[in-house]
Design brief:
Structural class: alpha+beta
Strand order of the largest sheet: 1-5-4
Distance between the termini: 40 Å
Number of helices: 2
Helix content: 25-40%
Radius of gyration: 19 Å
Number of strands: 5
Order of helices and strands: HEEEEEH
């Protein structure tokens, strides 16, 4: 529903990102076929909203709200349907932060792959990878 309210438009953007994640997950499960021996297939989704303009973080204080400029925030959305609850974590970044964000995602995927290899093959294949957040 577009009533011209910019707040509603922003909220609808979050809802639409969650709809896309749901669609991709469902598509992955629908298209999967077991054909005997199969390698591990892990799907990791990084829902993200990229803003061209300013991104502000709002913090409630006892008497007011404090606004602070930010390059990257995380928005959590809970949706309850049919007796279950689904949690979404959506990254919201400024366009200027995109390369740094992609480096962060790449590092997370590298650490995840390393942990999976470790679990499967022992302690091989994880040289030079830090498991502490960057």
């Amino acid at each position: 529903m577009d009533d011209g309210n910019p707040r509603r438009a922003h909220y609808d953007s979050f809802r639409k990102v969650c709809d896309v994640v749901d669609y991709q997950v469902q598509k992955n499960f629908t298209n999967w076929r077991f054909d005997g021996d199969e390698n591990v297939n892990i799907e990791i989704y990084y829902p993200v909203i990229i803003l061209q303009g300013e991104l502000l973080e709002a913090r409630e204080t006892k008497k007011s709200v404090t606004l602070r400029s930010a390059a990257h925030l995380q928005f959590r959305r809970s949706v309850a349907t049919k007796g279950t609850s689904v949690e979404y974590q959506i990254d919201v970044i400024r366009e200027q932060h995109l390369l740094k964000y992609l480096e962060l995602v790449d590092g997370e995927l590298e650490r995840t792959g390393c942990l999976l290899r470790r679990r499967h093959m022992g302690k091989l294949g994880c040289h030079g990878i830090s498991f502490l957040p960057t």
